[in-house]
Amino acid sequence: MMDLQALIDSENAPVIEEIVRSLRSSTGLIPFIGAGMSHDYGALMWSDFLERAAVTDDEKAEVKRLIKDGKYEDAAQHLDNADSNRFRALVREKLDVKVAPELLTTGALSLLPLLTTGPVITTNFDRVLEAFYKAAERPFGDSCIAGRGEKEARLILDAIQQNRHALIKLHGDVRDPSTFTFTALEYKEGYEERGVLMQLGNVIYTNRPLLFLGCSLENDRTLTVLQREASKNEFLKHYALLARPNTGPELEKRRDELEQAGIKPLWFMPGQFKQIAVLLDHLVERAATDGVTPDDAGKFNSAKPPNVHYTTIARGFRVPPRSSPELTVPHIREVAKAIKRGELSFFLGAAVHRTRLRGNQFYEELGLRLNVPPADRNRADVAEQLIDRDGRPALSDAIADIISSHFNDPWLTHKMIAGLARRQPPDIGRRLIVFTTNYDDVLERTLAAAGVAHHLVLYQPDGPHAGRFLHRSSTGKLREIVNPEGVYKLDDAAPVILKLNGGLDPLREVRGRFVVAARDFVEFANRIPAALPRVIRHSLRTRSLLFVGHGLFEPDVRAFALYARKQRGDRPSWAVQDSKRDAAYWRDSCGVDIRECDLDTYLMALHRALRDVFDIDT
What we know:
There is one protein chain. The chain is built from 25 helices and 19 strands. By secondary structure, it is α/β, with parallel strands linked by helices. The protein has four domains: 4-41 and 102-287, 3-Layer(aba) Sandwich (Rossmann fold); 44-96, no CATH class; 329-354 and 409-612, Rossmann fold; 356-406, no CATH class. The model has no long low-confidence stretch (mean pLDDT 89).
């Protein structure tokens, strides 16, 4: 016989699929938040608050009787009649709770801002939701609508119909008593036939699917309005996270009530309220990513690249140093210290390779192969002409062939990173992250040769996943990132390689696609930071960048550097170049200190500092 948890999982599976389809649609769904979601943060449940608000013995007895009969509105009316000023002041005193900062990144409510981008509806007075959305960098600001007047009704309708990011507080805000709806008279005024809340219900409950969280949906106004609307339209469909009743009769009764309201339940175990966060986490992940079918191997060169040989720098390299006044011991130790602490990400350019086929030379080679004369303007115009003349596939195949021919051997940077990657960080937040605009897969193959499983995040400028990243996990699972906001974590501390300009897939499961034409660089620059997975964006808050072998030329690199500067604040970053260019711009605007130095000399000095000072062998 199937146990209860297995039964719940089986019943939830088709509902989860429906919710995910709604979340991925252009309008998504609307979260509807009840008091149960604020309870863990100090906000009293309404029944508890009403009982505590009663002062005299007579008040306590009457309020308790009314609550037992399910007449919460009458209980509130009784207390309001007794002393309205005291009662409403008490609402603010007891329900205007503050959420501790350390709680704002955990639990179910921390996941809610990652689930949808449009309006959020609540019947809660408190400001718990506002705190969580602010912590998630999605504050409501002036788009918080509370009250039941005609002005508020118009604002609510606009927010719903325009799918605008707004918090709709149907029953008012704790800091403005004039907006409250909780007494019997206020409910009658708002929910009578021509009441504003009743008329709003015609839109709120019929516009698009709702997802109820923290709502009991038992003998309350919301359920009544939903059942009324569902009786008019059998195709209405909403969802609710609810505890599954234990007994058969209770379950059948509950299902009937919900079905009459057009609600499909997403069950969790009775009393296991922490499962709400587990279910939301699953929904966020499912809606944020989608499986990827490998490309047809017969339509591109899918032959696996050769394996590379890995040795540590100490065993494999002897680079004669070149003098450089900007290669100072304090600077190298500062960089090495940031690496040791997990507070630095590398950003690689073409000069990390020994080949001289970089930048201008690459575009010249591309033009020669496809019979296009060199451009006398922007070098990327060669690629523009090829796309317009022959189409993307021909260009991509030519680039893949050039890269495979010229970029195969790891050099100092690749081996240093592989050596660092072999050290498991003490926590996920300090994992090694490498950004690169290189098309080749030498770094990935070097990590594989060193026995290091890693995540690959590969941008797609064209094709079926255009404008998005693909993600191959450290276990080899390939998926498309549909909603970058929902990719807020990775399941392990394995290193991450993020290929900003696309490139070759080392497993050749997908065709190589490349940011190569002038329009590509501009388009990708305009997608920064929105296209970046949330987990990567957040990593930039606590990390310096070290640009290695990069010309810092294209607009997408500048867009990335500017965004990274905003994230990390005054934390320093550096670039290593043979000769400086635009140093003042990079220092003042991007917070990047360009050090003029031979790259091999710089890397050997960094290797020695890591080995001698911090006992890290690369």
